[in-house]
Amino acid sequence: MSLLPKGPYGCPYLQLAPMEGVGDYCFRKAMASVGGFDEAVKDFLRVPQNAHVKSLSLAYTANELSPTSLTAQIMGSDPELMGEMAQELMKRGAPRIDVNCGCPSNIVTGRGAGSSLLKDPSFLHTVVRAVVKSVSIPVTVKMRSGYEDTSLFKENLLAAQESGVRYITLHPRTKVDGYGPPARWDLIAEAKSILKIPVVGNGDILKVEDALKMLETTKCDALMIGRGAVINPFIFHQIQSHFSRKSYKPQWNDLLNYLDVYIKSMPIDMPNKIQINKLKQLFGFLFKSTPKLLENRQAILTSRYENIVDFLNYAKPLLKEGWEYTERDSKLG
User: Fold this and answer.
1) Are 36 and 234 in contact (CB under 8 A)?
2) Cα–Cα distances in Å, from 263 out to 157, 177, 252, 309?
3) Burial code of 80-103, b = ≥16 C-beta within 10 A, e = fewer?
4) CB 57 within 8 A of CB 22
5) Pairing label, strands 39-41, 13-16
6) pLDDT score of 191
7) 69, 81, 210, 257: which sits with the fewest CB atoms below 10 Å from its CB?
8) CA distance 325 to 327
C-alpha cells in the first residue's frame, strides 16, 4: 500500500510541512479547521544527548488533528537515543516517524543534528538506520540538498535510501542557503532519477501554479507545503479544486473561522504580549498574499497594542480590505 496515494481526479498526496516557530499547535489546529491536506507533520522533537525520551515524547499527541493524520518528526545525532525516541512515539500512536536531516539552525547544527548530518553520508545512514530498525511503522527522511554545497547530494540520497526509509522529502536548498535563494527544483528531478523510492517535493510552492509546475518539472510523487500555507491557508483546497475541476472560492467567514480557531488554540495562560506577537507573525504571512495586503504589512508588524482585542480591531479591517480588493480582482490563490 502506498504511503503517498493520489487523491480523486489524480490530485497528488498533499502534506502540511513542519515549521519550527511557525507551524505550532495553534497553526496546525487552525489549518485542520480549513482542511484540504492529507497529512501534517509535527514540528521536530529534539533528541539531545542524555535525553529522557519518554518525557520528551509526551509533546506528541497522535489524534491532535483527528481525523487528519499527524506524523512525528525527530531530530538528533545519537543513533541509540533516536531509536528509543522512535519507539516511544510509536507507542503513542505515531503512524510514521520522519527523521529531520534539514534544520539549518546554528544551534541545531552546532550539536551535530539537523542538516549537519548531510556532512557525512555514512553517519546519516547510521542514525537513520537505527530509527528504521527500532520501529515497525514507516520511517522517512526530510532533508536539504546539502550543508555548504551539493557535493554530497547523491551520496546523502543513497545513504538515506539504503537505510530503509520509505521515501524522502527534499527541500532543495543547502543549510547555508537558509530560506533565501529560490529552491532548486532541478535537484528534486535529479533525486527522482537517482532513487528507487518516492520523492516528495518541498519548497517555494506559494500558489496553485507553483504546485503544478513542480509536479511537471520534477515528476515528484507528492507535495509538501509549508510557508505557502501560512500565506494562503486555502492553498490545499485550491490545488484539489484544480484537479477536480470544481469551483472553490474561500469566503471571508472562512478566514475569520481560521483566525478564531488559531486564537482559541492559544494556551489560556499565555500573556497578552506573546499572543499579540504570535498574531503579528501570522498576519505577517497573511499580508504577503497579495500586493494590496502587502501595502499594510509593515503597519501591522510595527503596531503597538497591549491587548489582543485592540490588535484584532485594528488588523482585521485591513485584512478584510485587502481580501475584498483581491476578490474583486479575482486574484486570490
Assistant:
1) yes
2) 40, 33, 17, 11
3) ebbbbbbbbbbebebebbbbbbbb
4) no
5) parallel
6) 98
7) 257
8) 5
What residues are paired with 118 via a beta bridge?
A: none
Marked catalytic residue, from 11, 26, 103, 220: 103
Q: How many CB atoms lie within 10 A of CB 324?
A: 12
Residue 331 scores a pLDDT above 50: no
pLDDT of residue 326 exceeding 70: no
Give me the mean pLDDT over the 130-146 stretch.
98
Verify whether residue 103 is a known catalytic residue: yes
CA-nearest of 57, 23, 26 to 40 is 23
CA distance 246 to 63: 30
Please give the grid coordinates belonging to residue 253: 467567514
pTM of the model: 0.93
Average model confidence (pLDDT) across the chain: 93
Give the domains, in start order, of the chain with CATH numbers: 8-244 (3.20.20.70), 266-329 (no CATH)
Q: Report residue 112 as a C-alpha cell.
A: 551535530
* CB burial readout 219-256, b (16+ within 10 A) else e: ebbbbbbbbbbbbbbbbbbbbbbbbeeeeeebeeeebe
Provide DSSP, 152-180.
THHHHHHHHHHTT-S-EEEEEEETTTTT-
- How large is the average pLDDT for residues 73-100? 97
Partner residues linked to 70 by β-bridges: 40
Q: Yes or no: say if 48 and 76 are a contact pair by the CB < 8 Å rule.
A: yes
* Secondary structure E strands in 110-167: 139-146
C-alpha cell at position 282: 501570522
How far apart, in whole angstroms, are the C-alpha atoms of residue 252 and residue 320? 7
* Position 328 pLDDT exceeds 50: no
CA distance 89 to 249: 38
Q: Which of 8-12, 27-31, 246-250 has the lowest mean pLDDT?
A: 246-250
The per-residue DSSP string of 3-41 comes to SS---GGGPPEEEEPP-TTTSSHHHHHHHHHH---SEEE
Which residue type sits at 288? K
